[in-house]
Amino acid sequence: MKTRYGYRDAISGFFEFPTENARKILPPHLEPVELHHGASIFSMTAFDFTESEVGTYGEVVMAVIVAPLVKPGERLPKSAFYPYRVATTTRAAREHAIERWHLPHWMEDIQLEFQREGRRVGARARSLDGEPIADLTISDYSWQPVSHLYQSFMRNEQGGFLANIVMEGSQSEHEEETGSLVLHDHEFNRELMISEVSDVPFRELWMRDGLQTFDPLIQLQVA
Amino acid sequence: MEPLPKKDDPSRTTFTDYDYSNFYYGAGDDPLNLLGPFGQWYQEALPNGYYLYSEPLSAAPGTRVVVRNRKTGTLQELLNLASYNYLGISYRDEVKEAAIEATRKYGLGASGSPLLSGTFDIHLELAEAVASFKDKPAAILFPTGYSANVGFISALMRPGDNIVCDQYAHASIVDGAILAKSRTTFFRHNNPMDLERKLLKCSGKKLVVVEGVYSMDGDVCTLPEIVEVCRRHGARVLIDEAHSTFLFGPNGRGVAEHFGLDDEIDFHLGTFSKSLGGQGGFVCGSADLIDYVNAFGRSRFFSCNLAPPLAAGLLAGLRIVEREPQLRTRLWSNVAYIRRRFAEEGVDIGKSASQVMPVLVNNDAKVFSVAEKTQERGLYIQPVTYPAVPKHKSRLRVSVSAAHTEEELETAVGVIAGVLREEGIIR
Hints:
heterodimer; A: mainly beta; four-stranded antiparallel sheet; 2 helices; B: alpha/beta; three-stranded mixed sheet; 14 helices; 15% strand; globular
């Protein structure tokens, strides 16, 4: 049974950060993708969901890009990621994602504000009492319809899991280095060596008016 | 093993959705898992433009070349804008004669490691000539430019040391750093302020690695500012002058000489494959440095030495460079001419300040059709696209030679500008 989430905007920034930081975040069975020797990839994605089993909500996903699981005869994923921290604007969305996808959540609601100004879009994440968490800004380039397969790896006390996710919609992707990221000194960002995370995304990915479709969760054999 | 997917199988890859970067990382239980998806993609990529890579030449890489089209199988005579050979030396008669004579004298190869039985008198002569040309006490030869960077960096640096590279550093520099197992960081391209930020986080031994001319953009290193930052932080500087030795500076020694910083640079590295159109690499420096690299440069002494006929041809080529400074004058005149003509036609060559010029297409979907059309109209030139350059920074890479005539360059500009206009890249 597939699970679908419709969104108005899904914006991602991809940033270099030290591989030693990536390895501290990742479980041992996952390998970080390196952009350069010693430099792995941290991503922040903000979703503006307009349609789901749990209504409309906003979501922030902090992740490390990892090697996808490739199996003969199966569609090759575009890329794979390990979300190590997910936060939502509603409790219902949080409980749904924990129960169904075993995603590691920030256990409080957050505020997520999208700022749309022409060809730029920003996402401001704040705690409920207004403490700043992260500010991501990206810009667009050219748009084209896509349907891409991604893999999301999860791990909890029950073991390791994989979700195949198809992202459909209109996509803009570029490496113009026009975006920015501010990670605030907040408990939310405790896994990151903030001063070592690049504040300019080497890649900016913007999808809009799209659909995110999850295949049922797969349990992995991991040590 | 499971069979490969059939053509209408939804699991098969689609050419436009993927690029080389998608086939590098793949977890699973079989090291061959990526071969199937890559093979399917590559078979689709080939007729869609990737056939333009590795098209075999059947004549010397002069300004006109005979190329076998990998798509049609036909032989075409094309105007060459793709080969290095910046001074048009590799096919000069005296170079060929020197190689032929050395073949008669020494036979084909060195038949040994340079550390053991593979060093010949011609190698020592070439190393001395290179050191003299670069005005350095000594030089050491490597079988390729790649192995020079890999061997030199890993000979000098150790785990716990710091290597700080420009983000556009050549793969051989990165691989040298990996082999050294040093802490490696990258500063933003040609950005001394970011270099300083990176150096502030380093303690212990520090090596900063830059290139004289960057091979994809043809821009020149901001060496004066970088040297100043390195001085402040006690970092040693290695400059890879693969694309600038024999070309830049009053005596052709390279970009370091061009900026008057020859003596401020700790380690000078270069290749014979670019300006001389041959093969091999070298490092110049103090006699102590060369002795040390001779002892610890693994990529060198675990390889067979340069073939003596090649060394003899390189020596003859080097003598031409020394004897004919007008070749550099001619090259820079050609560079100025084609730059002016590109500007007049509205063709964007980015920040190029050298004989390497990216003709920016800035459209990953169109770069192959642009390249195909330029070849159909008589040019030998390759497209460069992601992941070799950032997304949407695709380009045709032009190499200008002293051997080109103005008529040839004018033909090239006409074809390129015409195709870019047809494709809507320029007006």
